[in-house]
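User: For documentation purposes, I need each entry recorded in a consistent format: the amino acid sequence on its own, followed directly by the corresponding structure tokens. There are two entries in this batch. Please keep commentary to a minimum and don't merge the entries.

Assistant: Recorded as requested. Entry 1:
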Amino acid sequence: MVCTSQALAAQAGLDMLKKGGNAVDAALATAIALTVLEPTGNGLGSDLFALIWTDGRLYGLNGSGHSPAKMTPHILAEQGYTEMPLYGWLPVMVPGAPAAWYVLHERFGRLPFAELFGPAVAYARNGYALMPTVGTLMKSEYEKYASFNDNPAFAGLFKTFYTNGIPPVGSLLTLPDHAKSLQSLAETNCTSLYTGELADAIDAFSQKTGGLLCKDDLAAYKPLWVEPLYTTYKGYDVWELPPNGQGVVVLMALNILNGMDFKNRDDTGSVHTQIEALKLALTDGKKYIADARFMKTPPAYWLSEEYAATRRAQISAEALLPEPIDPGSGGTVYLCSADHEGNMVSLIQSNYDGFGSGIVIPGYGIALNNRGHNFSNDPYSDNAIGPRKRSYHTIIPGFLSKDGAPIGPFGVMGAFMQPQGQLQILTNMIDSHLNPQAALDAPRWQWKGGKYIEVETNFPVKLREALRQKGHDITINPEVAPYGRGTNHLAH
């Protein structure tokens, strides 16, 4: 079984299962294919996080990249900025995904590593029909980066993805430079991106166009095996990866909600309380989550009943006004896989925002992430800008188990929507007893900061109005992408 947002990518994973591969092989082939098939959300310059269930336990992999050594606390002022820009070289971090592909395969994979690249290389070289969702995103991404058209640092973006302008839906999209880089990664166990030809190309283009990232930064990078965190919510164990990711926010919110009754998902009080719990948890997460080496307060506190009780007591009948954030829609892909042996993978991969920084290495098709945008501008923050440091990370794969037995992986996409979407899916299933598909399909809300809530068009009208009476500023957003879509393989 393989679930993801793009059918051809899922087929790439299924092909590995048919060849005798396991769930890890399937997940990796899917992830690699998605860099070609959904380039608006991820690529060869992405980061990756994964949860792997095998041999009766869960393993965690943090494949997020660190900042360049030259990203000092004073870099913004030195370059004339008051805050971290979203695009350009400054927010670029070391790509973690390719290295994570290899270490994940080395530990748990079965098929030859290079074989996992076959479908992706074929799609990149021979082309594929542009599907409506990605076609729409290609247009919006072009408009987003259009102002950089004359900037030499962005030349690779337009040459790689917009050779003949915005590609129409249904047209054949080929990515020959991307295919070349994929082939290089396959032949070198991904080392070419960190110490070989691809690293040289990144280093040279960075030096030429004003980047901080250099070959030494790439060579110094290693993914991290980490111990997953969990909380028990109404008999179910909900698993997330530890910081620097925001998965702990989901667990914090669930702990605040534990013991409350949410059987009726359309009950005003239930939805109001869930929104308030999420607002409190996400506000704290944004302030305190960072590279684990720099966090002054350990995750254990955020998962404690002391913390949950303190925040639970602050929820009232009226909408709170915590420190605001702007979640945004992000650029991410999520996938999950399972095999007949009981192995399961929950994996998420992202540029952070669309094509990321907008920097694409000419001749290689490597779109570099802009994850450094999630550093805090506060020099006293645990998440402050610094050299060789991992920033706060939005992408979070989830996993559910009960009584020591796996139920399955789950996840959604969309930057700061991810903990919100996960919370809603979990309460839909556990509290309202919806089946997995219904839990995904149910109309969602998204906190956008302050008292501002966006809801999908099919969100119940009476519930909308009742939430307004509680002080929530409700707006309908008809777009689908901001609500995170999502995938799960939950045997509920």
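Entry 2:
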Amino acid sequence: MRTETPPTVRLEDYRPSDHLIDRVELDVRLDPHDTRVTATLALRPNPAGRAGAPLVLDGDDLTLLALELDGQAPAPDAVRADASGLTLHRPPQRPFTLRIETRLDPTANTRLMGLYRSNGVYCTQCEADGFRRITYFLDRPDVLSVYTTRIEAEREAAPVLLGNGNPVEAGTVPGTDRHYAVWHDPLPKPAYLFALVGGRLDRVAKPFTTMEGRAVEIAVYVEPGKADRAAYALDAVERSMAWDETAFGRAYDLDLFNVVAVSDFNMGAMENKGLNIFNDKYVLASPETATDGDYAAIEAIIAHEYFHNWSGNRVTCRDWFQLCLKEGLTVFRDQEFSSDMRSRAVHRIAEVRNLRARQFPEDAGPLAHPVRPKQYAEINNFYTATVYEKGAEIVRMLRTLIGETAFRAGMDRYFADNDGTAATVEDFLKAFEAVTGRDLSRFAEWYERPGTPRVAVSGSYDPAARTYRLAFRQTRPGAGADAPPLVIPIGLGLVGPDGPLDGPLAPPFAERVEDGVFVLETAEDAVTFENVAAEPVPSLFRAFSAPVRVESPLDDAARLTLLRHDPDSFNRWEAAQRIALGLMTAQVRDETAGDAGADDFVVALGAFLDAEALRDPAFAAQVLALPSEGDLADEIGTEIDPDAIFAARRDLRRRLGTGLRERLLSLREALAEPEGTPFSPDAAAAGRR
């Protein structure tokens, strides 16, 4: 067991690998306690590396059985090998072959990293650095290789043998009770995307034809007796494939796409090339046991791992500091998929709630770090809400900043320029600079700076000039005085007592506001609307256009206007939440104060339900849902009285139920499924429920 402190790895110290591995041939002979792995590596010096450098391969808890260099055993003084690595002191300065045989005990591998056996199934987990627990290797994401894998096992114990890529051969081992399968992945990949599975598994499958005409078989493998709960996951894969073609122009590239779901997989889900592995709680569902939330989660997680086929696999990360490049981008992609499959309004609300609950506290605490951190001691601590969720918000801001058409063109350029390579954040932004002609160097600061910015907003109306001025000021807690301002896209509009207002922007600000987005690029700035007949209510940060904390001038009267008339769904929900928090906070602090605005809130919610409940019942349910006791405690901040908080929420809920009773009963009747309607997990049925 390791006891030493791992060394700190720094982004600034990155240098290319001194050697590359073009091809990998693996022969894995599975045995519960005595698995033998023979790796034949086709290596060559990297022109971008150090000439004459030793070959240093990573290892972790390995037993070396044999080593050959170009078919010959190297001299004893030419190599150093132990459980944690293998060094060839003077490797050839030309292409050469290294053959390495190691021995593993999959059953004893309780870390569940590398190759392990649990519940009778052989399985792998190689991200971030688990492949070095299978064989000695250049276990880093910028070394991409073409893999051919032969897997052998007892047929009775492991009748199913799966690997990356396409199957090319299968058969029995003469004179034994063992069989084998050979898999070939023609697309170069880093070692962390390697996978194999062997065991007794049931299978469901369906065909899919890509937009390029490729016939693909989608298969889901599950533990025996669970196949009847895999249909929804299979359907989610098919919809993910079709959506990625339409939304991003990305087609699948192999003949098979396999999903394996086992109960003992420790990472939740993993995007191994052509062989995604999941903990089965993210795959299996049936109407008897799964909630609507379970179905939505399965759909999103299946999609996330599939979308990695391009954002992570075809274009991977140069180093682990670029983790946000695959994870933040893929989270954004799965969010967009879920928004198209279900209610976009509801999904955006869920995304922001999650961001505020998980990432904002992380950004405000002692573990705050940039989306692209600058150093780490343990790579597995990198998988954070900041890297994933804030990383996704940065991609979303980029789309808001340049517009949907330019964003799609930039994504196409990114995939085209970097296909088959290990990329960086700079490569990502460079693609968008190329298609827009914009300098995104200042926008890139979002990747480098920790902390959640604050934006204070003030508004002033001039009735004589019929103008409305919005002023913005940004600050970032913890940032030094010399820290440059961030580029913050602010979705905005004006709302009046009868609905949204339209009016041109007064010069010189017109050219800086496009499609309802104002870009705050300095510490302070302002924008002026003209031809405004009466004082409006500003609708700020529509669709939560930037991951910031907003200090706005709105009171409950203004929020009621937004709840009734704002065309932005997120801000309608936010207005209802803020009104409810205000009413409940007032009651906690003064037993009678919360009554004052409750009647107006009931009236506004009634009007909202009349307009929206049948059109998008899932969104209507979100607007009606009160903030939790925890949200209320956070709002109060100090001197928390749990009993008073509980009572305030109970009383407001009772007030709304009483005031909206007839509407709610009517809606229940209108949205009820006819007697005998079969259960459907789709978004429309879930919304009605």
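Summary note for entry 2:
Confidence is low (pLDDT under 50) at residues 507-511.
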